[in-house]
Design a protein that fits this description.
The chain is an alpha/beta fold. 40% of the residues lie in helices and 19% in strands.
């Protein structure tokens, strides 16, 4: 090769290298639509914020319709991802099949539904599962704290809880009352857990329940109640350790995101989901939840990467 050819080859090689680098660092664009659980919302919101730092041209919208409300949109193809604080129900699976919506279930963290009271409540030391059922079950006659234990004050009990579209409501009613959706109806309902926090924090006689992260975020305004399970020697409070070990029973549970396989054809959605799985352990811990074992994240990531996508 003649010496005079070197500059041209070097320039050509440099141009080729820069072109490859440009493609490798190309920014994605588009929209990722997420809806569903208020319990999973803090993690998804945190992931979306971190993802926007590396992909600023991708808009991630995160709605809070409750797990059930989110599935109503997801199973007809209106959203890419559904945040879910419970597994998908048979009736939701049926709708998804009818609408030809295929999906992947991805566990992202552990949660412990936290039963909370006002910090001024000095009489409640713990509650048993049977007492929770007595308070919350269909047809409950409990109207004062004295109705639960005779030694407690004859003070009105004011109840706050998730709406009926909430996965937390489904899980709590099934575990405590024995049937999903079985509950007294005379309580303040909201899909927004912050509304429940404000309600309990503002009334000495109040009680509510919601995801662990909302308790952690507001523990200066609330008091978590230890739960004594049937046959247990002592009550257990919701903590990272008790949720992780499953000793906070029966209110510990995994929480999920559901991802549409069709949406994975969009590069921005697939990149977001992969980023979510890779960062779920760190961000779930930062938002007050308990990370899953590393192998579970690795399995989910491998499943997403194995999905064959096509150019839309």
């Amino acid at each position: 090769m003649k010496a005079s050819q070197w500059p041209f080859r070097l320039v050509l090689g440099l141009v080729f290298s820069l072109t490859i680098q440009s493609h490798a660092s190309a920014k994605l664009q588009g929209t990722v639509k997420v809806d569903g659980s208020s319990t999973v919302f803090p993690i998804t919101e945190a992931v979306a914020e971190e993802f926007s730092k590396i992909q600023p041209r991708v808009r991630v919208t995160v709605g809070v319709s409750g797990t059930g409300g989110g599935f109503k949109k997801f199973t007809v193809g209106e959203t890419d991802i559904n945040d879910a604080s419970r597994p998908i129900k048979d009736k939701e699976v049926k709708v998804a099949k009818e609408k030809k919506v295929e999906y992947i279930q991805i566990p992202v963290a552990y949660d412990g539904i936290s039963v909370v009271i006002n910090p001024k409540n000095t009489w409640v030391d713990y509650l048993t599962v049977d007492e929770l059922k007595k308070i919350w079950n269909t047809g409950s006659k409990v109207s004062t704290w004295k109705d639960i234990r005779s030694a407690w004050p004859d003070k009105k009990i004011v109840l706050y809880g998730p709406g009926t579209d909430s996965g937390t409501f489904d899980y709590f009613t099934e575990e405590i009352n024995g049937k999903s959706q079985a509950s007294r109806s005379d309580f303040t309902k909201s899909e927004d857990d912050n509304t429940l926090v404000q309600g309990v924090a503002g009334d000495e006689g109040a009680m509510g329940y919601f995801g662990f992260s909302y308790y952690i975020e507001n523990k200066d305004k609330l008091k978590a109640v230890g739960i004594k399970n049937k046959g247990a020697k002592a009550a257990v409070a919701p903590t990272v350790d008790s949720i992780n070990k499953g000793t906070y029973a029966p209110l510990s549970r995994p929480i999920f995101i559901y991802v549409s396989k069709a949406s994975l054809n969009k590069p921005e959605v697939k990149a977001f989901v992969e980023f979510y799985i890779q960062n779920a352990a760190k961000l779930s811990k930062e938002t007050g939840y308990v990370p899953l074992p590393a192998k579970m994240y690795e399995k989910s990531l491998a499943e997403i990467k194995s999905v064959k996508t096509r150019v839309l």
